[in-house]
């Protein structure tokens, strides 16, 4: 995994998460599936629902990953990892907790669904 992803995900370093957008898409494309697997571990942790820092780190990383997948056209390469993370979200409560307030797992599932559907008609 790219060193910056390892730092941000391994230490849940929100202060460095924005730096992921300074990396070239091709520089991180090889590690996107691995990063998705690490996000799955984080989002399945018992304290994830109450840990705002982890939720913010995950949200930023997913945005970076889905952007890189779109820009590099690598949905086929990382599709299995996307679906695995999406399926893990289905094991959690996806019902809104308040008015217009999605649960953290619903946000992840929504972002992944959007990424998959945006790439649906892309030729193999």
Automatic annotation (TrEMBL):
It is found in: Endomembrane system. Keywords: Membrane. It is a peripheral membrane protein. It comes from Cirrhinus molitorella. InterPro entries: Melted-like. This is Ventricular zone-expressed PH domain-containing protein homolog 1.
């Amino acid at each position: 995994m790219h060193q910056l992803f390892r730092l941000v995900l391994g230490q849940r370093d929100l202060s460095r998460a924005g730096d992921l957008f300074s990396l070239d898409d091709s520089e991180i494309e090889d590690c996107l599936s691995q990063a998705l697997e690490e996000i799955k571990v984080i989002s399945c942790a018992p304290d994830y629902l109450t840990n705002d820092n982890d939720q913010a780190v995950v949200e930023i990383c997913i945005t970076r990953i889905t952007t890189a997948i779109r820009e590099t056209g690598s949905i086929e390469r990382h599709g299995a990892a996307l679906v695995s993370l999406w399926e893990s979200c289905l094991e959690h409560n996806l019902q809104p907790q308040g008015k217009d307030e999605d649960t953290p797992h619903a946000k992840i599932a929504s972002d992944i669904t959007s990424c998959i559907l945006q790439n649906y008609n892309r030729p193999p």
